[in-house]
Amino acid sequence: MPEQFGHARRAQWAPLTVRSKYHSPMRPSTTDANYSYDMHRQLEQDPARYDRMPSSIVDPKSIDAWRHDRMRSAFLPFIAEWPGAKWLTIGDGRFGADAHYLLSHGADATASSLTDHTLRQSHEQGHIAEFASVNAEAIDYDDGAFDFVVCKEAYHHLPRPPIGFYEMLRVANEAVIMIEPIDHRNGGVLLKLKGLVKKVLRGDGIAEFEPDGNYLYRVRPAEIGKLLAALNYTTYAYRPFNDFYVGGLANKKASKWSLAMRCTQLGILVQNALCRSGLLGYGLASIVAFKREPSPEALAALRDADFAIRDLPRNPYLTTADEPEADS
User: Fold this and answer.
1) How far apart are CA 111 and CA 97, in angstroms?
2) Where does the pLDDT of residue 194 fall: very low under 50, low under 70, confident under 90, or very high at 90 and above?
3) Residues 154-183: pLDDT tens digits?
4) Domains, in order of start, for the chain
5) How far apart are CA 248 and CA 239, in angstroms?
6) How does DSSP classify residue 25?
7) 145 vs 182: CA distance, rounded Å
8) Label partner for 146 (CA 20 to 30 A): which of 17, 58, 79, 166?
9) 308-311 and 235-241: which strand pairing?
10) What is the pLDDT of residues 84-95, one digit of tens each?
């Protein structure tokens, strides 16, 4: 669930409202990437939707901030193992909250989103440093311009996600780190039950489209592995996890004595227990697509942080520059 903005309630966008605002009688205009990008630009610049800073900046002790910083904790092993690395955040239009987290932990981070509308405000208030307007499917930076590229809960908004993935991979020197919903097509009865619980508690369920108007493109870690293998990269890592969001609890304090906090943690613990027993699939995952093979020390640090490491098959029909080609 996207991060809330301070104590302001997140604007409720019904799909029909969005459709009536942007829908054209010409059907082709709603089936290309420009339609999606134009819609998201307008939403990102709408003051009714982005009227306050996100909770992780202005209310860091709230449950909502705790939830999102818990997701961002996936960045910490990389900050520790690659000190001085340059980072780029993608889809960071909520005032650069991801870049703000990285900066607060000593990283060199540039925030980017489809527009710089909220990023400029955050920069002027001293919450982020560098920022840019970036289309994830056509990133205006040179190859390897950054060590790490981060995309938290934005990949599933892209109209052509694999194109965006390869663009992020192009400008990264070490790895692309994504935090995204996981695809569970055959989740069975418990997944349907989870959707019902979400519908009761939040007013929504497990849908194929989001109120912003985009298709919700869930990923699988193995799918990212295949995209890497196609370019002969060797390694990816992932850490599945669960989240628990109830709007009425989001702005409560994240203290250990808080009933709201205990409910949030209990919601996560119940899901975790069902996942470990094989009855339910995890809801989200931190997925790391490496461009360079990590050092043994870096891999050990990732395993200590509960990441699973996966080696990809090597292409037997390719040879390295210093390996002579076999006689046929």
Assistant:
1) 8
2) low
3) 998 898 999 999 999 999 999 999 999 998
4) 15-311 (3.40.50.150)
5) 28
6) S
7) 29
8) 58
9) antiparallel
10) 999 999 999 999
Chain centre to alpha carbon of residue 43: 18
Does residue 118 register a pLDDT over 70?
Answer: yes
pTM of the model: 0.84
**Token pair for 201:** 């508690």
User: Per residue, what are the HEC states of 202-225?
Assistant: HCCCCCCECCCCCECCCECHHHHH
Cα(326)–Cα(72) distance, rounded to whole angstroms? 46
Question: Where does the pLDDT of residue 104 fall: very low under 50, low under 70, confident under 90, or very high at 90 and above?
Answer: very high
Contacts made by residues 70-74, CB under 8 angstroms, sequence distance 24+? 70/243, 71/152, 71/153, 71/179, 71/241, 71/243, 71/284, 71/286, 72/98, 72/101, 72/152, 72/179, 74/177, 74/179, 74/239, 74/286, 74/305
pLDDT in tens, 278-324: 888 899 999 999 999 999 999 999 999 999 999 999 999 886 554 44
Residues facing residue 178 across a β-bridge:
151, 287
Residue tagged 């850490």 (tokens): 239
Beta bridge partners of 172: 146
Distances (CA, A) of 293 to 93, 174, 229, 234: 31, 9, 13, 7
What are residue 177's phi and psi, to 5 degrees? -115, 120
Query: CB of 134 within 8 A of CB of 111?
Result: no
d(CA 32, CA 215): 12
